[in-house]
Structure formats: C-alpha cells, structure tokens
Amino acid sequence: MHLKHLKVFCDVANLRSFSRAARENNVSQPSVSQMVHQLEEHLKVQLIDRSRRPFLLTEEGKVFYQGCSKLIERYYALEERVRTLHKDIAGQVRVVSIYSAGMSHLNGYITRFLEQHPQARVRLEYHTPDRVYEMVRNDQAHLGLVSYPRRSRVIRVLPWRDESMVVVCNPDHPLGRLDQVAPAMLDGQKMVGFYSNLRIRRETDRFLAQHGVTAPIAMEFDNIEVLKKAVAINAGIALLPLPTVEREIQIGDLKALPLEGVDLKRRLGIIVRRGKGLGKTAQAFIRLLREQTPAATEEESEATEALASAVGLPVPPDDPAESAESEGVATDVVDAPSTEAVDAPATEAVDAEADAAEQVPATVGER
C-alpha cells in the first residue's frame, strides 16, 4: 500500500468526512472512497462502518488508524529532517487558533517568520476553543493557540503571554469621560459579553462577583469582532484584552479604561499533543512565538507600548525573558535538534518544559 492511502484514510477518520478528506489531499471524493476500499481489500477487514450516519470506525479501523497516524507523523518528520539537513527551514507548520488570539497577534508573527524562513509555509485556521483542542489531539495541527490553556493526559501547555483586561466602551458612554474605572463603578452597567459556556465569560463573571458587581448582560456573542461592534454602537460596555481592541482605540471607535487597583489578565498559551514529534519548522515557529513580540517592526512595537501607556497600563519589558522570569517560567523552549523521527528529542524538550510550566497557576478560552 502507498503512503498516500494511509494518509487519506487517517484524514477521513480525523475529518469525519470523505469529501473534506478529498479537499485536504487535492483529489476527488470517489478517489478517496476507492483508496479506503483498496485498504480494506488489502487487509481483508472493514475499516469503516458506512451503515451509520455519520460513519464510524470499526474496531479494526480504530486500531489501524492509531498505528497509521503515528507512522505518517514520523514519516513526515523524517522527510522534513532529511530535506532540510543542510538547508534552511522549508517545511510547513499547521497552526490553529481561537479568533481573538490569532487575529490580534498572528499576522506580525507570520510575517516575521516568513521573512526569516522564506521557504517555510504556515497554514493557519481559526476555530472555537473546543475545535482547537480537538485538532491538536487528532494531529490535524502541530500547535494550537488558546486562552486559559488547560492541560490533560493528551495535551501539553506552553506559556505564551498574559494580556491586561480593560473596560471597553463607546467614547460617548458616561464612563468614557474617565481615565480609569474602579470595579465598583461597573455595578448596574449594561454589559456585552461572551456566551456563558466560554471560559473568558466565566472568568469575567467570577471577577465581577468577587467585587460585588451586578451587571446585566445586554447581548451575548461567541465572536469577539461582533462583540466589539456591539460595544461601538453603545449597546453596553465590555471587559476585553487590550491587544484585541488596539485598532478600534486608535481610530476612535472605542475607549479602553484600566481597572483601578486591579491587575486582571487573560493568559494565552500554546498547546501541543503529548509525545508528538515536532519538526524543525514547527519548533522554529514556537520559538518565534515565545521569543518575539507580535509587532514585525520597531514602529509597531513602539505603537503598542504607546497605547498601553496611554490607557495607563505598565509597558511590557523589552526582554521576553524578564517577563517570563517574573512568572517563574523557563524560556528555553524547543532548542533541541530536530531528530524526532528517530528518537524524538524535540518532543522531550517540549514535554519537559511543559511539565515545568504546568506548575505555574494560570491567572485568569474564548474565541
């Protein structure tokens, strides 16, 4: 059997769809069905129960999928290692992110990464938190970017960055005349929030309750871009991470107010699957995420610092290590050589740091 057959079968199992697996591999849906059928004929077993809707893997299919997925992962890691042994990084890294983390940060990171490694490719998708975890668990992405990351027996967590939460309102709102807001001043204010099943909503609700604040929710959304538009039309105020509203503040659509006497943070993290062999490209991208600011230029970095200063927040330190050390987090993430196709030391490097990082409690996931 060709490796292509094995990859197609794994994609069918991962994506739970013959048509989506066909698009993933740039082939027709009948070709995907034929390849799976050829595998079944070769093995003389049924791998997929097509009588169920949606279809299910048979017991034989589950065993075959578990073995094939590891085989394919190790093959592509080995292939990348051989191809780039004496060359610059030239592989692909698959990144999946929640909307608010990706849209406010990733353009700068990707631009800088491709400037450093012109032959590399970055495949980026935005999804809900649950889908991000699912894709990392199922090897559909090398890494995921989430807020308030949670580890499990399958998922490892690498700290990334903490973001200051601010009160956001329309500039014409009564609070808009102020320079900062005490938590008690939010009592009785109409708020625009995330859906109650999202982690950021639970954290903001907990924060308000701890300060004895009762704030009616006027609107709820699962998308931060729509939420910001609701605040801009004065439907209510919101508690949001400062980096996610930088553009709206600069053009005057929104105003950000620091919380007086409170340092409320949203923690962002990088998640990877435990034991996964990361190739050189994925390792390099993780290093960039952890070592660089998202701004691709000095002017952008200065603009970000100016915005934080303008709304009364402390300016981040120039040295990323200084920030990480203040949290008790190691900064030497994945500098091990990429030989994971043989003995996976890169995986061990990620796992070892993640184990240490998981001992650091999160401060305060949504889209």
List the helices and strands and how they pair.
Blueprint: H1 3-15, H2 18-25, H3 29-43, E1 48-49, E2 56-57, H4 59-83, E3 92-97, H5 99-116, E4 121-126, H6 129-137, E5 143-147, E6 155-169, E7 191-194, H7 199-210, E8 217-221, H8 224-232, E9 238-241, H9 246-250, E10 255-257, E11 265-273, H10 280-291, H11 298-310, H12 320-326, H13 345-357
Description of the molecule:
The strands form 3 sheets. Strands 3, 4, 5, 6, 9, 10 and 11 form a 7-stranded mixed beta sheet that branches. Strands 1-2 form a two-stranded antiparallel ribbon. A two-stranded parallel ribbon has the order 7-8. The model is unreliable at 294-304, 316-352 and 355-365 (pLDDT under 50). Strand 7, helix 7 (199-210) and strand 8 (217-221) form a beta-alpha-beta unit. The protein has 13 helices and 11 strands. By secondary structure, it is α/β, with parallel strands linked by helices.
